[in-house]
Design brief:
This protein is of the alpha/beta class and 817 residues long. Strands 7, 8, 9, 10, 11, 12, 13 and 14 form an 8-stranded mixed sheet that branches. Strands 1, 2, 3, 4, 5 and 6 form a 6-stranded mixed sheet that branches. Helix 21 crosses helix 22.
């Protein structure tokens, strides 16, 4: 025994310097300094399985970060246990079969029973040498990384050699014997403690590695063999009078077209390549809010629903999750990206491909639904863009129902079988400069969308030398699907037997709206969109540098007082630094002048800035609407102001994907107080009024109100068109099309070069909002209304000054002529 200890000590002494020099921890979470350790109690570390490499790494980390030592043994009362313990590995040798290994904590528990002063802190620790999801990769499976399968000594040695520069360490919350002791029997406490630790290690591995992956071919075979797909095969074979075998081969072909083939070598290659790309392309990637996701991962199936602004979105979120120690999701990508070279790479990085529409293809729909269900039911994290496509206008687009409905049906099906909850994770992606700037402007002006191709993507490399600023990845408030259904449809569990409950078409749009609101509530203000908000609110896209800086300061101060989103973030630095940054990015120009520099935007720059302004315009919707009400009327009481704005606010809130407060009057009262605190309004008895003495404050109030002017003009124009004809005259499509043409005419007459002002989708959304708010009804395809709408439209006229009303009405009358 003494000789064995001497040999073990010599081996450790020889290997420790090698581990210290060779290994590099890419992520330690939480930071060792943040561990809530009680300094008066001894600390013992616990590993999920015996592994010398993990023990040596822990000794090195403890020494480097000032943690209690992890090497040798630790004196605990009368005992002398190793400082680093491990849960026993299952016996795999023939002579060990039948023995059930026990956890090594019982002596400590028995001593604590005799002397409660001998309490101990147990700190779980998980070490990941690389991060491979559990799947065989040939030779790479031998070398590559940690996976769900236990590793032998040779493979562990090779894994350390290959992945020593890609190590992640996850510490768990310390456990104390005094909190876990079972008074009945020390053996029960020992088993309870082991069970808690195994659960912790399992959740940690699931969060980092994801669930065990089936081989792609096995997964596709299982999809095709499922009852749902077999039923579809039979129906299609009967309808087409084609042999079932041929339809089954078609289903398998669909499966190969759809299924991802996530592999660790590609994931690791892409992580390194993307790290170099981001360093070349951006000045930094700031990730906020992932702590709430980490608390959910491992126990819930996560579905990430980011906004869709750029092709980079696909890669950016996966990279951010991988860097932060979370398993990258399987990503639903459009089939247009399954092109030579690019498609196979994305597929091995976790992308699965879907057609734009498959409503009329019963077999494809069955295969896709079954594939999606298998991913979700097994707990794989998922990501899709519920908007369906990238936003060319910069706004959050309304959610399309397809993927949301399929996710909901899969959840109901899993719930029948006792499956776990699905949690949606809304993510806001904010850029200071996107790669698609020029193409978006062309498409907004009517150009055809160019088809993606490898050559087109290679053309992007020409822009890698340009600065693209910073990127913000803000995680919004997660949404439990079970909790959402409990609130919206309390009796949903009674319909689990139905594959398509009757309430599904009502719930899916509400789910999409809620998720869009949570994405927008996590928006990131950055220098570019702040400058765009101010500069585009001026009549000629020109402003004094000093006034621009003061207005930027006002906008940020308003967000601090009355945030437009619960999880919105503000930029660091000063207004002058923000202006300089936007200028360095080429988004604005500066004209030096003896009396003060002038900041300007030419026609091209103004078109670009409009996209970034629209990213965050919703954060100032209520502030802008309140300020706009004081442009024509200098004084308002809270009651009259509420009555004036109440009819239109729900429509604006829906347009901007804002969660409206239960009582508008309470929000307005707080907003009036905030505007007064910033010197933009004055209190006068029980009313509020424009500043009488400060011309600068009045100018700033007008610029704030100008943020909402385009949206209010669109709404007023649409109502003018609708009310110019009798009830039942227009269809929804006809009203939206007529209003869009008039808005385009108004933009040309007023010199407003902003194609998004007359975006057809905005008018379609306005019509839907009027119908949702019960201002309109649909009778035989025609829009009908009553006197209530006319009264509300008449009331809203007071928001506009006579000159603006005359201009809007003139355009409408010219159309009638």
């Amino acid at each position: 025994m003494g000789l064995a200890r001497m040999l073990a000590g010599a081996r450790r002494a020889a290997l420790t310097p090698l581990v210290r020099r060779w290994t590099q921890t890419r992520l330690i979470e939480p930071a060792p300094e943040a561990l809530p350790l009680e300094p008066t109690l001894p600390v013992l570390y616990v590993l999920s399985r015996p592994a010398l490499s993990d023990t040596l790494l822990l000794e090195t980390l403890a020494l480097a970060h000032g943690l209690p030592g992890a090497g040798g043994r630790r004196r605990v009362g009368q005992l002398n246990p190793p400082a680093c313990l491990a849960l026993p590995a299952p016996g795999r040798r023939l002579w060990r079969r039948g023995r059930r290994p026990t956890a090594p904590f019982q002596p400590l528990i028995e001593q604590y029973r005799r002397d409660p002063a001998q309490d101990v802190q147990l700190v779980p620790m998980s070490v990941f040498w690389g991060r491979a999801p559990g799947k065989r990769f040939g030779f790479w499976h031998l070398l590559a990384a940690d996976s769900w399968r236990l590793t032998g000594r040779l493979r562990r040695l090779l894994s350390v050699a290959v992945n020593g520069r890609d190590v992640e360490v996850q510490f768990g919350a310390p456990l104390r014997l005094s909190e876990l002791d079972d008074p009945r029997d020390p053996a029960l406490t020992n088993r309870k403690l082991a069970r808690l630790l195994r659960g912790h290690f399992r959740r940690t591995r699931t969060r980092v590695l994801g669930p065990d992956l089936s081989h792609r071919r096995t997964l596709i075979d299982g999809v095709v063999a499922s009852a749902e797909v077999q039923r579809a095969i039979g129906e299609v074979a009967t309808a087409e009078t084609t042999p079932r075998a041929r339809i089954a081969r078609r289903a398998r072909r669909y499966g190969r077209e759809i299924a991802s083939d996530m592999t660790y070598p590609v994931m690791r290659f892409m992580a390194g390549a993307l790290r170099r790309l981001w360093h070349r392309l951006y000045d930094g990637v700031e990730v906020r809010g992932l702590a709430r996701v980490k608390a959910l991962a491992g126990e819930h199936t996560l579905v990430y629903v980011p906004c869709h602004r750029s092709h980079i979105d696909y890669l950016l979120l996966s990279y951010a999750l991988y860097r932060e120690g979370l398993m990258p999701p399987h990503i639903a990508a459009g089939r247009n990206l399954d092109m030579p070279l690019v498609g196979p790479l994305l597929r091995r990085g976790g992308a699965f491909f879907m057609r734009r529409s498959f409503r009329d293809n019963r077999l494809y729909a069955a295969v896709f639904n079954e594939y999606l269900h298998r991913l979700l039911s097994r707990g794989h994290p998922l990501e899709y863009f519920m908007e369906g496509g990238r936003s060319r206008s910069g706004r959050q687009l309304p959610a399309r129902p397809g993927m949301l409905a399929m996710t909901l049906r899969s959840f109901l099906r899993s719930h029948r079988e006792g499956g776990r909850d699905i949690v949606f994770v809304p993510v806001y992606l904010g850029y200071e400069r996107i790669l698609e700037n020029a193409s978006y402007q062309r498409e907004l002006r009517g150009a055809e969308k160019r088809k993606e191709s490898p050559l087109a993507l290679l053309g992007v490399t020409r822009r890698l030398r340009q600065s693209h600023g910073r990127v913000d990845v803000n995680v919004g408030e997660p949404l439990s699907l079970a909790a959402f259904l409990d609130a919206r449809m309390p009796g949903w569990r009674d319909d689990l037997a139905s594959p398509r409950p009757t309430w599904l078409p009502r719930v899916v749009p509400a789910l999409g709206e809620t998720l869009a609101q949570r994405i927008n509530a996590a928006a990131a203000l950055n220098p570019v969109n702040l400058v765009a908000l101010v500069l585009l609110a001026t009549p000629h896209r020109a402003i004094e540098a000093g006034l621009l800086a003061r207005q930027l300061e006002r906008l940020v101060a308003l967000q601090r007082r009355r945030p437009g989103g619960r999880d919105a973030s503000l930029p660091p630095g000063s207004p002058e630094a923000w202006i300089a940054r936007v200028e360095a990015l080429g988004m604005i120009g500066r004209h030096p002048h003896p009396l003060g520099d002038i900041i300007v935007a030419d026609e091209r720059q103004a078109g670009l800035l409009g996209w970034y302004r629209n990213n965050v315009l919703h954060l100032f919707a209520l502030a802008g609407l309140t300020a706009f009400a004081f442009r024509h009327q200098a004084r308002h009481r809270l009651e009259t102001l509420t009555a004036l704005l109440a009819p239109g606010w729900p429509i604006l809130a829906r347009e901007f994907a804002i969660a409206p407060a239960p009582a508008l009057s309470m929000d307005l009262a707080a907003m009036l107080e905030a505007l007064a605190a910033e010197g933009l309004l004055e209190r006068e008895g029980d009313a509020w009024r424009r500043p009488r003495e400060s011309l600068s404050a009045g100018e700033q109030l007008d610029m704030l109100g100008a943020l909402m002017q385009p949206s209010l003009e669109r709404g007023y124009l649409l109502l003018s068109v609708l009310l110019s004809e009798p009830s039942g005259h227009f269809t929804a499509e006809g009203l939206a099309a007529r209003s869009r043409l008039l808005a385009e005419r108004l933009a040309l007459l007023s010199g407003r070069d902003a194609p998004e002002f007359f975006d057809a989708r905005l008018f379609t959304g306005l019509v839907e909002s009027l119908a949702t708010g019960e201002w309109l009804s649909v009778d035989d395809g025609r829009l009908t209304f009553d006197a209530t709408l006319r009264e509300a439209a008449e009331q809203s006229r007071a928001l506009f000054d006579p000159a603006l009303r005359h201009r809007l009405q003139l355009v409408s009358r010219q159309d009638e002529a």
